[in-house]
Structure formats: C-alpha cells, structure tokens
C-alpha cells in the first residue's frame, strides 16, 4: 500500500508546484500539526528552510496560544498537517484560529477529511488508503516536492544548499 500511496503523491507534482508558486516570495512561514503530524511538520520545515532559505518554523498545533499565535500576520503562510484522525477536530480548530488572524492556510490532509472549506486557502489531498501510522511515509513526499519546487522557483539549486555539510561531525 505505501508504494502505491507514494506513487499517487508523485502524480500530483503539478499541485505541489502550484503551492510552491504561492510560497516563492514569502520571507517566513509556519507548519503546525499534532502527534505524528507535528513530527512531520518538523521535518518539512527543516527541509524547506535548508533548500529555500525561507525562515520556517514548525509548532505543535496545541501550543499556538502559548506565544506562537502572536507571530501570525496577514498573509503569512501556515501549512497545517491534518492526516491523523484522532486529533483532527483540535487541529481543525487551530487552523481556523490562524485563518481568523489573516494567515494564508494551506491544508495537507487526506482526501476523505471533512472540514469547513472556508478555513483554508489551499488544500492538498494525500492518499487516504494508508493507516494513520503509515500516512507520513507518503505525506513527506508531497512536502519535499513543495520544498523542492519552492527552491527551484526562487532560482536556488536544491542540490547545493549553502552552508550545509554532507555529514555531521561529533566530538
């Protein structure tokens, strides 16, 4: 199932490129998610930051009211990850909060996930055939494609990020 789900994501390359076109001129953006989606948002934020040089941060959606929400300004992109059924209502509530404060909300969610469409500006549907625990395997591919195309559209070679080492040196 996972290979087929990843293949379905790769077929949506044009959608990823379109989302990237909306991010190309921003100087900051945020990712939010809960549970596995929070872990996924950390990885997505790091990848985007590394190859686009856009200031990107990931936050646990449940922590928004502890200062993070003060960073939301009109038009700031907030990519909300909504792939985990057990935390969906709370994450949708957080998504509505940032939308009410003027954020440009991009929802990355399963195809069958229902929520008020007026709470998002863009929606990317992932494959809905995987169980919650495996969904990040496919969703991360979409997030990496979005980072890749944002980098390319900014005129940056994503294969040669500045100031990054190929290996980590430890003492």
Describe this structure in words.
- This protein is of the alpha/beta class.
- The chain contains 5 helices and 5 strands.
- α3 links the parallel β1 (28-33) and β2 (55-60).
- The longest helix has 19 residues, at 135-153.
At CATH level 3, the topology is Rossmann fold
Number of strands: 5
Q: Portion of residues in helices?
A: 40-55%
Low-confidence stretches: none
User: Whole-Å distance between the termini?
Assistant: 41 Å
As laid out across the biggest beta sheet, the strand order is 2-1-3-4-5
Mean residue pLDDT: 92
Chain oligomer state: single chain
CATH architectural category = 3-Layer(aba) Sandwich
CATH class: Alpha Beta
Write the topology of this structure.
Layout: H1 2-10, H2 13-23, E1 28-33, H3 36-52, E2 55-60, E3 77-82, H4 88-100, E4 104-110, E5 122-126, H5 135-153
Parallel strand pairs: 1-2, 1-3, 3-4, 4-5
Helix pairs in contact: 1-5, 2-5, 3-5
Concise account of the structure shown:
Helices cover 40% and strands 18% of the residues. It is built from five helices and five strands; from the N terminus they run ααβαββαββα.
Can you give keywords for this protein?
Rossmann fold; 171 residues; 5 helices; alpha/beta; 5 strands; five-stranded parallel β-sheet
